[in-house]
Write a structure and sequence with these properties.
The structure holds two protein chains of two kinds. Chain A is an alpha/beta fold. Chain A has eleven helices and six strands. In chain A, helix 2 (35-45) packs parallel to helix 3, helix 3 (60-68) packs parallel to helix 4 (86-95) and helix 9 crosses helix 10 (179-195). The N and C termini of chain A lie far apart (49 Å). The mean pLDDT of chain A is 83. Classes of the chains: A alpha/beta, B alpha+beta.
Chain lengths: 211, 420
């Protein structure tokens, strides 16, 4: 069965562009241009995957996820953005999005990313991998949970390959592990990103030029 | 400024959500007024009935003329304009007072004084008449003149302050009569108070002169100051808008024009990407010369340059950041050469650049998924790899490593760093 997708973006032009690219491979079940409209659309049409713009008036993708995530945990979110600002992207991920890609992504790559999200895996673009490595770099904060606040050596390796532009398949090949294992590592990183206090501390420090 | 606040009120008072009534600003109402619209304006402002407000004014006037003074001050200070009917307030012409209105005003003034005299609130000859004279002079000077002026100010949206000085004088006879009346008030007051000592007289005369001047020029200065503030605020807004417009014109509009002329998709995409990069740098507040200062910006800048020169997509990711030094500059330059090589020779549509700054070492990865090549087969005379990449890094104590195969090429540049 084809994956049921919804598009949430306040730019009509972008929505129609994505719609045209995706309709062959996926089933489009809804779209919305506002946070409020997105929330009711998701409640009504229960898509498998929501393509979610990071930046929208009235709270952005963050607000949409917060409104429906607890109520409909089976709906998964893939964040899409033209933004370079790491904190905006990481905020959406921490709210519960399963991945982040830039809007310049090619249509086949986007379809593949949606499928991967639908399978329950995380989608890390090279940019997001860079953001995460940045957030977790340096000394671990004192008195924090080391399981959450540090990446394992393997996770770091996987992320570095992704940041270098390697696809999951290529990462698996390079490290001599299966794609499934790569996906497991990436999902673990996503979980750490969502649960650890690490990122906030790092941001706090960089905002004050301490790092 | 005024039109903005009016439209806000217009929306909220006519909007569907009537329970969220927002207090309209205090204005002298033009609709439903009897004299100057002060009572009607207050009624709108407070949400009371006009009758109640008017009764209050009459009663308050009985109390030593308090209501009269308040009414008069509000007449001068509150701007005219209808709150509920903002849509037509702007184009409503300024009306001269009708004969009935003038008569009404006169009767009210006379009535007030009669009441004051009869009720025993009269200040006595020494104070009463000077006040009456000065008040009437003030009224002649400012009351209607104010309305005319406001009318004119509304018509021409943004007059310069000099223009308002020149173009909206109070008419000459009115100026003369008003000044004379105020001066006469002062003189009568002084004459009636000669019993005080000579020194006191001096002070008193001075105070009366200052008070008279205040009556003559006060409202005018008040309005001019308001006007200046409004002008300054709108100028700041206009400047900000002009700056954004200038920037967008030089960058985005030029690119859009180029894109319309470009007939090759690759070129179009490249133009769009370059513009996106530039605009983003501008939006997120990067200084124009920041590329020469920080590693992250230098890498982004290099990626942008290669993108625009070679028409391929360059995805640049940097982890960690530091001020540029000689070594980092060499690394970025070498990575730029590697990126350009990949763009030129690999045939791949995109190149990934990853730069990571760790303690003691900085590493750059430049990767494409193109056709690949044999590094050993590159002729001796080709300077690209040997000189620009390997040699340049070696001079700073770094190494370069090229791995290439049928699925693509990766150049790894590693440079040890002594912590500063």
């Amino acid at each position: 069965m084809s994956v049921r997708v919804a598009i949430v973006d306040d730019h009509e032009l972008f929505r129609s562009g994505v719609r045209a690219e995706l309709t062959d491979a996926l089933t489009l079940v809804g779209q919305a241009g506002t946070v409020e409209g997105a929330i009711s659309m998701i409640r009504d049409s229960r898509p498998d995957v929501v393509l979610l713009d990071v930046h929208m008036p009235d709270g952005g993708g963050h607000a949409v996820i917060e409104a429906v995530h607890a109520e409909l945990p089976e709906v998964r979110f893939l964040a899409l953005s033209v933004s370079d600002a790491a904190e905006d992207v990481i905020d959406v991920i921490r709210a519960g999005a399963r991945g982040y890609v830039t809007k310049s992504i090619s249509p086949p790559e986007l379809v593949a990313a949606v499928r991967r999200i639908n399978d329950g895996d995380a989608v890390f673009s090279s940019r997001l991998a860079g953001f995460v490595l940045d957030a977790f770099s340096g000394e671990a904060p004192q008195a924090a949970d080391p399981d959450l606040d540090l990446l394992s050596a393997r996770e770091g390796e996987v992320l570095r390959y992704i940041a270098r532009g390697y696809a999951y398949k290529e990462v698996a090949h390079q490290l001599g592990i299966s794609i499934k294992t790569v996906e497991t590592h990436v999902s673990a990183v996503l979980r750490k990103l969502q649960l650890s206090s690490r990122y906030e501390l790092t941001r706090w420090a960089t905002d004050r030029s301490l790092l | 400024m005024r039109s903005m606040s009016e439209s806000r009120v217009y929306q909220s008072s006519h909007g569907p959500d009537a329970t969220r009534w927002r207090r309209p600003p205090l204005r002298r109402a033009r609709e439903g007024r009897i004299l100057a619209g002060v009572a009607a304006g207050i009624a709108q402002h407070l949400g009371l009935s006009r009758i109640a407000v008017r009764v209050f004014f009459v009663l308050a006037t009985l109390a030593a003329g308090f209501g009269f003074v308040v009414y008069f001050l509000l007449w001068i200070l509150a701007p005219a304009g209808d709150v509920g009917t903002a849509a037509n307030a702007g184009r409503r012409p300024v009306r001269r007072p009708s004969g009935g209105q003038l008569a009404g005003i006169g009767l009210v003034v006379i009535g007030v004084f009669v009441l004051l005299a009869v009720g025993g609130f009269w200040f006595g000859e020494a104070h009463g008449w000077p006040v009456v004279l000065a008040a009437v002079g003030f009224a002649v000077l400012w009351a209607r003149g104010g309305d005319d002026r406001r009318g004119r100010w509304n018509v021409s949206r943004m007059p310069g302050s000099m223009q308002t000085l020149v173009s909206t004088p109070v008419s000459l006879p009115r100026l003369a009569i008003g000044t004379l009346l105020i001066a006469a008030g002062g003189a009568v007051f002084l004459a009636a108070n000669t019993s005080v000592s000579a020194a006191g007289n001096m002070l008193l005369a001075f105070a009366v002169a200052v008070g008279g001047l205040g009556l003559l020029t006060g409202p005018w200065i008040w309005r001019l100051a308001n006007q200046l503030m409004e002008e300054r605020a709108s100028r700041v807004r206009a400047d900000a808008r002009a700056e954004v417009a200038a920037h967008l014109h030089d960058s985005v509009l030029q690119t859009l024009a180029l894109i319309q002329r470009a007939n090759e998709p690759r070129e179009t995409a490249s133009l769009a990407r370059t513009q996106e990069r530039e605009l983003r740098a501008w939006l997120y507040g990067r200084a124009p010369d920041a590329a020469g200062v920080r590693l992250r910006d230098a890498v982004d800048d290099m990626a942008g340059r290669v993108e625009s020169q070679h028409r391929v997509r360059v995805e640049a990711v940097t982890v960690g950041d530091a001020p540029l030094d000689e070594g980092l500059r060499a690394l970025v330059a070498a990575a730029g050469e590697a990126t350009a090589n990949a763009a030129r020779h690999s045939g791949a549509e995109s190149v990934a650049v990853y730069v990571e700054l760790e303690e003691g070492v900085v590493t750059a990865f430049v990767r494409d998924q193109g056709s690949g090549f044999d590094p050993d087969a590159v002729p001796e005379d080709r300077h690209g790899i040997r000189e620009s990449i390997v040699g340049r890094l070696a001079r700073h104590g770094g190494t370069a490593n090229v791995t290439s195969g049928p699925t693509g090429t990766e150049v790894v540049l590693r440079l040890p760093r002594s912590e500063a």
